[in-house]
Amino acid sequence: MNYVSVIDLLEQAQQLVREISVQQLHRALSGENPPLLVDIRELDEWQQGTIAGAIFIPRGNLEFRIEDEAFDRDTPIALMCAGGVRSIFAAKSLQDMGYTDVVSVAGGFEGWKDAGFPIKVPQTLSAERRARYARHIIMPEVGEAGQLKLLNAKVLLIGAGGLGSPAAIYLAAAGVGTIGLVDFDVVDTSNLQRQIIHRLDAVGTPKVQSAAETIARLNPDVHVIGHQVQLTSQNALDIIQNYDIVLNGSDNFPTRYLVNDACVLLGKPLVDASIFRFDGNVTVYDTAHGSPCYRCRYPDPPPPGEVPSCAEGGVLGVLPGIIGSLQAVEAIKLIVGIGTPLVGRSLQYDALEAEFREFRVRKNPDCPVCGEHPTVTELIDYQEFCGIPHRGTVH
Amino acid sequence: MAIVRIPSPLRKYTGGQAKVTIPGATVAEVMTNLAAAHPGIAPRIQNDDGSIKRFINVFVNEDEIRALNGDATTVSDTDEISIIPAMAGGK
Ligand SMILES: [Zn+2]
């Protein structure tokens, strides 16, 4: 038998692998072309603390998962374990896979700590959450980091009705940690044809309460904040400023202009959608990142009564299910930071023709709220703007 | 001539058709001819002076006509003009 001790094996590997000191690593991480730092220790070690920016792939999964993070064999990679030994074997293995620029951090994480460099205790998912969100976590585009972003995210839904129902259900199921709902209505029997978050036994109760109960039964991870108020120019900024993203599911033009202007003023991304009969429309406005806004697209509201509401004209019950779900998809993409957001584009769905079409939405340099010389710098009277006689409230 | 895509609420004026082919070399001409061919549609999309209502987006293919040449935008037989009114519904 050819006896090779671990010491022999290590010495052989060390001949082939380049090592760097923790000081060199520290410099490299703040340098021009920082390496992909991979913490290859076990979960319990990583949970105690790691280096900010390190990705976690335990040694046992390294060969299987490294391509998800770095397919390019010339990617600079630094491997770190606790003391700098496991990372030598790991580096040898990546070199065998064809990676050309792999280093092992001599001294490992313990050496990093001893040198007085900062560490970070990573936020991790409990075993229960790992199981619940397994189908998200297994996708490299989401992963544990993406799921944590979802759990930390705060999304506000304007309206807990047609669009708000599917959006809230899917966002809750996805593990969006905080969902705010603005709605002052109570559940009506005629809502149940499409507002799937509400049940027959909730008729007569406030929509925010009914929605919160459905969400609680679905996913206790989600904290629901009910705003059982009419959104007005007086309260909109106070409410919206506490959230990361706003989904618009309101049912009238004054509220649509109000929500748009508030999101522009606060720099919040707005996932906007509207529905009528068999047609739906969804787009993302994100003026903090150069996107057009609702006013760029619709500078003037229609005269009162010219455009019928769903209450007057009807709406196919499934339609908000499609469009509200698209809003949820866009919100999740924005939170996780993946894909191409529906910015500068409007997706139009025609249920009768079974067609999706896309149109360009352009920024208007003369837009009164997001243009080069804005004239709307605070919230205005949106009833008046829409030519509606005053009833004192907006919704 | 161009193909005009009719939004579902206005299809009662086109006999239920989602697409109609209308003669005209510009968006304005097509709109005038559309209004003549399908009575009832004009007051829904045009002002009294024939201009298109401001809350209605008119697209030639994927571009809104305000980004092109307004209602003087020229169209050919294969172009699609889409009439997309603002919708408020969400509930
Ligand atoms: Zn704008």
The major sheet of chain A is characterized as: 8 strands, mixed
The main sheet of chain B orders its strands as 2-1-5-3-4
Q: What's the total count of β strands of chain B?
A: 5
CATH superfamily of chain B: Beta-grasp domain
Q: Count of helical segments of chain A? A: 17
CA radius of gyration of chain A is: 26 Å
> What structural class should be given to the helix and strand makeup of chain B?
alpha+beta
Distinct ligands: zinc ion
Largest interface: A-B, 48 and 23 residues
Helix/strand structural class of chain A: alpha/beta
Model description:
The complex is a heterodimer of chains A (about 400) and B (about 90). Chain A is α/β, with parallel strands linked by helices and about 400 residues long. In chain A, about 35% of the residues lie in helices and about 15% in strands. In chain A, the strands form 2 sheets. Chain A has an 8-stranded mixed sheet with strand order 8-7-6-9-10-11-12-13, sandwiched between helices. In chain A, strands 1-5-4-2-3 form a 5-stranded parallel sheet. In chain A, helix 10 (about 165-175) runs parallel beside helix 11 (about 205-220) and helix 10 (about 165-175) crosses helix 16 (about 320-335). The longest helix of chain A is centred in the C-terminal third of the chain and has 18 residues, at about 320-335. The radius of gyration of chain A is 26 Å and the shape is elongated. With about 90 residues, chain B is of the alpha+beta class. Chain B has one domain: Ubiquitin-like (UB roll), CATH 3.10.20.30. Chain B has helices at about 25-35, 40-45, and strands at about 1-5, 20, 55-60, 65, 80-85. Chain B starts with a strand and ends in a 6-residue tail after the last strand. The mean pLDDT of chain B is about 95. The interface of A and B includes residues 158, 251, 297, 350 and 359 of A. Zinc ion binds near residues 292, 295, 296, 364 and 367 of chain A.
